[in-house]
Amino acid sequence: MSGPNPMHFESVAVEYAAARPPYPASLWRDVMSTGLVAPGRRTLDLGAGSGQVTKVLLEHGMDVVAVEPGANLAAIIRQELPRAAVIQARAEDIELESESFDLVTAATAVHWMDLRIVLPTVHNSLRHGGRLLVWRNVFGDASAQVTPFRREMQRIIEGRKAPRAGKPDDAQANADAIAQTGLFTVERVIRYRWVVELTTDQVSALFGTFSDWTAAEVEEVASAADRLGGSVWEHYTSWLISAAPRRSQ
Question: What are the CA-CA distances from residue 161 to residues 53, 165, 212 (Å)?
Answer without folding.
Answer: 35, 12, 12
